[in-house]
From TrEMBL:
SUPFAM superfamilies: P-loop containing nucleoside triphosphate hydrolases. It comes from Racocetra fulgida. It is a lipid-anchor. It is found in: Endomembrane system. The keyword Translocase does not apply. Belongs to the small GTPase superfamily. Rab family. One of its GO terms (cellular component) is endomembrane system. This is 13374_t:CDS:1. InterPro entries: P-loop_NTPase, Small_GTP-bd, Small_GTPase, Small_GTPase_Rab. It comes from the Eukaryota. One of its GO terms (molecular function) is GTPase activity. Keywords: GTP-binding, Lipoprotein, Nucleotide-binding.
């Protein structure tokens, strides 16, 4: 974690979201507006949270998961302190893109805290990678806060 020289926060964390950008909007703006426009390139939000008595400023970068944007988005992987792979359980293509992106991301970053979000195949993939798993619902606002707070705590 980068320590802040400013009184506004104690730490600054760069986090990445790869996949469904509705999670970013639910966490940062507490909003859900289906269907949302697909991210083209990069979307960026900031939210400051309190965790274990510390103010943590989160820079959350939502990168486009599509292959055609990969050359744009891989530049943003460097310096990230955590990543959430997000996919839609009703869209197999969104799940299949995770493995390739995971390999690219881990080749660029040595020490990370990573977790995958959503159900059975996600649990299996998370077990295979040895990472955390969360099932969330952006629409119903279930486990969104918990997923981000766990990522920040490095639990």
């Amino acid at each position: 974690m980068a320590q802040s020289k400013s009184a506004a926060y104690d730490y600054l964390l760069k986090l990445l979201l790869i996949g469904d950008n509705d999670l970013l909007h639910r966490f940062s703006d507490d909003s859900f507006t289906p269907p949302f426009i697909t991210t083209i390139g990069i979307d960026f939000k900031v939210r400051t949270i309190d965790v274990d008595g510390k103010r943590i400023k989160l820079q959350i970068w939502d990168t486009a998961g599509q292959e055609r944007f990969r050359t744009i988005t891989t530049a943003y992987y460097r310096g990230a302190m955590g990543i959430a792979f997000v996919y839609d359980i009703t869209n197999e293509r969104s799940f299949n893109g995770i493995l390739n992106t995971f390999k690219i991301f881990t080749s660029l970053n040595e020490t990370l805290y990573i977790f995958v979000i959503t159900k059975e195949q996600g649990q299996k993939l998370a077990d295979e990678f040895g990472i955390k798993f969360f099932e969330t619902s952006v629409k119903e606002n279930i486990n969104v806060e918990e997923a981000f707070f766990t990522l920040v705590r490095f639990d």
